[in-house]
Design goal:
single chain, about 350 residues, alpha/beta, Aspartate Aminotransferase, domain 1, Aspartate Aminotransferase, domain 2, 7-stranded mixed beta sheet, globular
């Protein structure tokens, strides 16, 4: 029987990490993970049922994801050789770090932002450089470029809209950075379907620009499908590192079908954005709440005694996200926009909880 010192075998960079945490709490109303509250439309599921019946699950999927890539390319106005499919956009973030960074290099991003930029970088021995956002969760190009200059980062990551703050950064600031930064710039547009803002058109003028998208926010979170748009040379090198068959047959077929019939999903996206605006207005009317503007499918807000409020909501069957572990997000909670009924329940439970002296 072996009883070796496992701790001594783990790389120091990994020991320092904390795993990305997602609350796995059984609540009736789930508004914590930035998912769509709507499944794919029944008409789409019906046609998929027929198509999935023809799948040969004993065979490997298309390693090139050609049909899906062609559909994506047509939808966003690029060529198929500019598109790569990932097992979620997280996989593509990891691959980009593998391609462009050596151990000891640096990557930079605003702070606070999506935690996986830092976690993946640290796991690979790459230094993460967090540039603080201002009080409006934004930055100027001069400030950002000045802060990163001493470290000469290889990659810049911008979540656009930004998770967890919900807003799109200044387009002028991003544009100025794109015009002046000599390394790789990744625009993570996972929530673009809700913001309607994108830098895809800039790829024609800037070969160092990579745009990431996700289908997880518009009804297919369970399939883990993300994609990247980039110069063909970047895509070619991603494919050298990308694991074979990283996208399964079911994910490819359903994603291709959904994107080819996107008008069905547009109705759901419109419902979510209308509910987002209604929810923001309702939260802003609560005196104890400071609500921040959102271009995404979630809303960041700040309250006193956020931990107590989070627990009370959870106990009452409404799960949102507590972000208080981040020093810039003390007292901050994040709620995903759900159905009208889910949002009404969240609001009513919020008001009841805030009226309770135990949560004052």
């Amino acid at each position: 029987m072996s009883n070796i010192d496992l701790e001594s075998k783990v790389r120091p960079a990994i020991k320092k990490l904390k795993a990305y945490h997602v609350d796995a709490i059984d609540c009736e109303v789930q508004l914590h993970a930035n998912e769509s509250p709507y499944p794919p439309p029944p008409e789409l599921l019906h046609s998929l049922g027929i198509q999935l019946g023809d799948l040969e699950l004993n065979r490997y999927p298309d390693p090139a994801c050609l049909a899906l890539r062609e559909t994506i390319a047509k939808r966003i106005g690029l060529a198929a050789n500019q598109i790569v499919v990932g097992n979620g956009s997280d996989e593509l973030i990891q691959i980009l770090l593998q391609i462009f960074c050596e151990s000891g290099d640096c990557v930079a991003f605003p702070d606070p932002t999506f935690a996986m930029y830092s976690i993946i970088a640290q796991s690979m021995g790459v230094e993460p450089l967090a540039v603080p956002l201002d009080e409006n969760w934004d930055f100027t190009a001069d400030f950002f470029l000045k802060n990163i200059a001493p470290k000469n980062p290889k990659i810049l990551f911008f979540s656009y809209p930004n998770n967890p703050t919900g807003n799109c950064f200044s387009a002028d600031a991003i544009q100025e950075i794109v015009e002046n930064f000599p390394g790789i710039i990744v625009l993570d547009e996972a929530y673009q379907d809700f913001s309607r803002k994108t830098f895809v058109a800039e790829m024609a003028r800037h070969n160092n620009l990579v745009v990431l998208r996700s289908l997880s926010k518009i009804g297919l979170a369970g399939l883990r499908v993300g994609y990247g748009a980039a110069h063909p040379y970047i895509v070619e090198n991603i494919n050298k590192v990308r694991l074979p068959y990283n996208s399964n047959s079911v994910s490819q077929i359903i994603s291709e079908k959904l994107l080819a019939n996107f008008s069905m999903i547009e109705t759901q996206i419109e419902a979510i954005t209308k509910e987002r605006d209604r929810l923001m207005t309702a939260l802003a009317e609560i005196p104890e709440v400071t609500v921040f503007p959102s271009d995404s499918n979630f809303i960041l807000f700040r309250v006193k005694e956020a931990d107590a409020l989070f627990k009370t909501l959870t106990d009452r069957g409404v799960l949102i996200r507590n972000l208080g572990s981040h020093p810039r997000l003390t007292g901050c909670l994040r709620v995903t926009v759900g159905t009208r009924e889910e949002n009404d329940r969240f609001l009513s439970q919020m008001k009841l909880a805030l009226a309770d002296p135990a949560n004052a």
